[in-house]
Amino acid sequence: MKGFAREDLFFSLCGLNCGLCPMKLDGHCPGCGGGAGNQSCKIARCSLEHGAPAYCFRCGEYPCERYGERDEYDSFITHQNRLGDMERARTAGLENYRTALGERRELLEFFLANCNDGRRKTLFYLAASLLTLGSLREIRREAEAMADLPLKERGTRAAALLQAAAEREGVLLKLRKKPR
Fold it and tell me: pTM score > 0.85 for this model?
């Protein structure tokens, strides 16, 4: 969007974790306000109309009608924790939030490099976004102990561990697509 630029391309204006997005990490999206290829966005337009706060929670009108209810559907990135993540960034401080987001990204990169047999990429992205850091750290330790197993078996076991953690935490590791 013309005239809209941001410094933080890993945590969006509206609370999406772009740093954990497959489109961003695969180089297909410049991120919110990242320059060429940046899509028109109603929230970016709203930001420009309200003095260009770097995050919606820094706007004097936040929370507004855009944040009245949770997103019902996901895009290529999960929207399930968007409001909660924005609230954590607001209350814990951006540096603390960015540190946690950086750790999530490191954990995601570990799972992609060591457990992805080509069939579980979306699962790993969702797990990194939605599960607690404690669960992700523990599953990484367990996956590291499986280093001698073939990749397919490591992937199967890691996926089972992530699904079990999701069940314990009441999380669905599946993108919620809008019906056609």
Answer: yes
